[in-house]
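Deliverable D4.2, example record:
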Amino acid sequence: MKRAVPILAVLLPGCDGIQSAEGRDGLQSLLIGHLFDGFLLTAAAIYLLVLGYLAMAVLRGRRHRRENSGWQREVPAKVERGWRIGLIAFAAVTALILAALSIATWLTDRALANADNGPIEIEVTGNQWWWDVKYVNVDPSRSVHTANELHLPAGVPVHITLKANDVIHSLWIPNLAGKQDLIPGRTSDLTIKPLRTGVFRAQCAEFCGLQHAKMALDVTVESPADFARWYEAGLKPPPMPPGGQAFAGFELFQNRQCASCHNVAGTPASGQVAPDLSHIASRRTIGAGTLAMTHANLTRWV
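Output generated by the structure prediction step:
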């Protein structure tokens, strides 16, 4: 599908990217973007019209002073009648514009609310300061558990259930959809239909503590075939280390407090209060987008 180019991205190239409110890479963001364009163009037209009338008033005022050597004490009836008609027309046009924008907002809201949920169910839980991600399946053995990453198939609607464990968080994937809050004790949801493949960045958009700015979420939109391969790989437990330092590290992880907080599929580590570390090496970043996933950064992080 050909990507819709937002107006601001044309005028200001810096308004486009992997984390841009002007992104049109999902059906939901496309609907919101079209509404924004309508408001922007309408406001720009009114602004230019007001500037035009202001310039006309200044020029006519100067000409009037030159011709009459001062202001007339009485306004001619013809002029007064023209002002009255102009004021009525101005009020009517303003009402029509506001009505049109209200209807456009309502239609966009209904389109977002009526979007199909799709076959994929994901549960995202906000924590200080990381994202817990579970791909829910009626067969528990087919569920995938990960953290700080979200993989989505292009062209397929996805329903995301949102929860929070501690304080209020807010999930915002600006290129794909609107913002949605995660409130402790309540469940909210978000439907996303990505329109093209790519790598995007989500962010917690509600201040949730001192590390709030570093609470990011990597979002990878790939073809349905690539998503299926990623999903199948996520169902398999990671391979056991063959020996040497890798196995020594594995034993250290199991015998220390790490295993009581973190989960690693296929091992005795079954902690549920910290990010799931199964297949961590396949992720793009460490620590909710804090560092790129490299051997050096992983060593520093540990």
